[in-house]
Amino acid sequence: MARQASLTQSMSGLHTWAGLILGWLLFAIFLTGTLAVFDEELNWWMQPELRDSGLDQTSAVQVAEDWLRTRHPDASAWNIGLPTERGPDLSVSAGEQRRGQRTIIDPGSGEVVQPRETLGGNFFFRFHYTLHMPRSIGIWVVGFAAMAMLVTSISGIIIHKKIFKDFFTFRPAKGQRSWLDGHNASAVLLLPFHLMITYTGLAIFFLIYMPAATDALYGGDRQAMFRELRPGAEQQQERGGRPGEGGRAARVAAPATMLPLDTFIARGEAYYGVGMLGSLSVSNPDRANAQVEVRPVLGSRLELTKGESLSFNAVTGESLAVPTPTRATLLTQKVMAGLHFAQFGGYAMRWIYFICGLISCAMIASGLVLYTVKRRRQAKSRTRWLRQAEWLNVAVVSGLMLACTSLLWGNRLLPAALDARETWELRVFFGSWLLALLHARLRAPLRAWTDQLGLAGVLLLALPLLDLLRASESLDSLRLGVDVSAAVMGLLLLWASFRVANRPAVAEKPARVRPATTGVAS
C-alpha cells in the first residue's frame, strides 16, 4: 500500500501547482499594481503638454472661478479639479459634465490646454484588477488569483519549518540554491505585506464576492445598505441634492453674490490639512441657494475618503454638513481599502509599497523559474508541459515588462494629434507583448530571457533620453522622477540579463536505474 502523504508533502504540492498555474496571473496583477502606485505621476508624465505652474490651490481656484464665471455664468453647477502634489493640473467643467468631460486650463494664464489622448497610468490601475477584461469578469478572475495567493502564502508557511532560519540564509553563486534562498527570504521578509495586500484586495470587492448578506438583509438592494451606512448622504439629498449637480431650484432662486471660492479653500484646509483638498464644486452658482462642496484627496488619512466632503452655503459661508463618524463596519472596510490603495503617508509610504511590490514580483518570478529549473534537472521530466511552462515564464515575466516599457515609448513616439490615440497605445502594449510571446516560443529559454530582459533594460535606460528629445520643455520634478526611476529599473534589468547570460548551463541528472536482481543462489 502506498503511504499517505504527510501534511508537509501535501502542502508542498499545493504550493507548487497553485503557484505555477496562477503564478502567471499573479505576476501580471502584482506588476501592474506596483506601477499603479504611481498612477497619477504616470498620468502627468504621459501628457507633456501640461505644465506645473507652481500655483497654490487658493490662487488656482480664483483662476478657475473667473474662467467659469466668464464662460458659463448660467450653468447649473461648476466643478473644479484642484492642482495637487501628484497632479499639478487645474481642470474645470460646468453643468452636468463629469470628470471625464473636464477642460484643463493653465493655472497661470487661464488659457485652455489640450493635452494628448493617452491611456496614462490609469491603464495599469485598471489592468491590475480587471486584466483588461470586462469589469465583472476581470474582478472575478483577479479575485480567484488572490485566493490562490493566500493559499500559496499559507502553504509556504507550513512547508518551511525553519522559516526564521530561511530568512537569514542566503548562499550567493550557488545556482539553484541561491534562487531558492532568494525566493524564501523575499517571501518571509514580505509575508505580512503579502497577506495584507491580498486580503485587503479581496475586501474591496466583498459585495461582489460575498453578496449573500446584502441579499438576505436588504433584498439585494445595495443602495438601501449604503443609505443605512451613510445617513449623512441621505440628509444631504433631502436638502436639495449634491453640490455639483444643480437642479430646478436654480431657475427660481434669486440672484445673489457668493463669497469668493478661495474662502472655502481655507475652510477645507482647516478641516483636512494644507494641500489635502482634491476638488471643489458649486451648485446653483450666483444664486441665493448656492452651495459649495469641498472634497479631500484620497490620501488625507488611512481611511479611504472617497465620497467624503464638506458642504457650505456659498452666500453666507454657513457650514451645512461635515462628515459624520463612520460606522464601525464601514470604517473597517474603508481602512482595508486605504491600506490597499496606499493613498496615505505621502511619498515615503508610496515608495515602501513600490519596493515591496517589486520584491513581490521577483518572488513570484523566481518561484516560476525554480519550478522549471528543478524539473529540467530531472531527465524524466522532459515533457512537452515543461517546455510550455518555460516559454510562458519568459512571455509573462520579461514579456510583460517589455510591453509596459513599450507603452511608455509609444506615448512619446506616436503623433500627439493622432486619431484614436488611446487605441494605438493599446495596440503598442499588446502588440509588444504578443511579439515577446512569439519570441519566447521560438527562442531557447536561456537566450529568450537574456534577449527580453536586455531589451527592456535598454529601453528603460534610454527613456530619459527619449523624454529629453521629445518633450524637453515639459521637464519638471515629477517627470524627472519618472525618468530617473525608469533608468534605475533599466540598470536592474540589464544586470539581470547579464547574470542570466553568464549562468552556467543546467546539468540534467540521469535517471536512477535500480540494479536488477540475478536470482543466483550463493
Walkthrough of the structure:
The chain is an alpha+beta fold. Helices cover 59% and strands 7% of the residues. It has helices at 7-21, 23-36, 39-45, 57-71, 122-130, 135-159, 163-167, 176-189, 191-204, 206-209, 212-218, 222-229, 231-238, 249-252, 262-272, 328-341, 346-376, 384-413, 421-442, 445-471, 477-501, and strands at residues 77-81, 90-94, 103-105, 112-113, 277-283, 291-296, 310-313, 319-321. An eight-stranded antiparallel sheet has the order 4-3-2-1-5-6-7-8. Helix 2 packs antiparallel against helix 17 and helix 19 (421-442) runs antiparallel to helix 20. It is globular and about 85 Å long. 38% of the residues are buried.
Produce the secondary structure layout:
Elements: H1 7-21, H2 23-36, H3 39-45, H4 57-71, E1 77-81, E2 90-94, E3 103-105, E4 112-113, H5 122-130, H6 135-159, H7 163-167, H8 176-189, H9 191-204, H10 206-209, H11 212-218, H12 222-229, H13 231-238, H14 249-252, H15 262-272, E5 277-283, E6 291-296, E7 310-313, E8 319-321, H16 328-341, H17 346-376, H18 384-413, H19 421-442, H20 445-471, H21 477-501
Antiparallel strand pairs: 1-2, 1-5, 2-3, 3-4, 5-6, 6-7, 7-8
Helix pairs in contact: 1-6, 2-5, 2-6, 2-17, 2-18, 3-5, 4-15, 6-9, 8-17, 9-16, 12-13, 17-18, 18-19, 18-20, 19-20, 20-21
